[in-house]
Amino acid sequence: MTIRWNFKSYLSSKHNIYTVTELRATITKKTGYVISIANLCKYVNSRPTMLKLETIEIICSALECEISDFLKIGPKKFKNKNRKKLSFKNTPKEKRGVKSFPNPENYLK
C-alpha cells in the first residue's frame, strides 16, 4: 500500500503546533489522557509501523480532526513474480516455532 503519513505538517499548518510538548499539552488539556513523549515523537517525526486505535482516537478527539486529515492509504502495485502461498510448508525450518512434532506413541508407555 502507498502510505502517506503527514502528521508533522498537519500539526504545524492546521494547529500551529511545532513541538511534541505542545502536542502533549493539547491532548492532556482536551481529553485528560497523557501520552508519553516517546510515543508522540515517533508519531510526529516518522511514519509509525503500528498504531493503537485508542491512541489515534485520543489524538483525533484532541485535535478535532479525522485520521484521513494526516494519513492517506492507497493500493500498492505488486509484481507477479514467483508468489508463494504463505503456509507452514514454505516457512524455512529454522524459522518454525516447532522443529518436529512429538511421537504420540511415547506418551502411551
Condensed summary:
Helices cover 38% and strands 7% of the residues. By secondary structure, it is mainly alpha-helical.
Describe this entry's structure for a reader.
- There is one protein chain.
- By secondary structure, this protein is mainly alpha-helical.
- The protein has a domain at 2-74: 434 Repressor (Amino-terminal Domain) (Orthogonal Bundle).
- It is 38% helix and 7% strand.
- It is built from 4 helices and 2 strands.
- The protein has helices at residues 7-15, 20-31, 37-45, 53-63; strands at 2-5, 71-74.
- Helix 2 crosses helix 3.
- The protein is elongated and about 65 Å long.
- The N and C termini lie far apart (54 Å).
Structural class computed from helices and strand pairing: mainly alpha
The shape is elongated
Write down the Rg.
Answer: 22 Å
Number of helices: 4
- Please outline the major beta sheet: 2 strands, antiparallel
Nearest-integer average pLDDT: 85
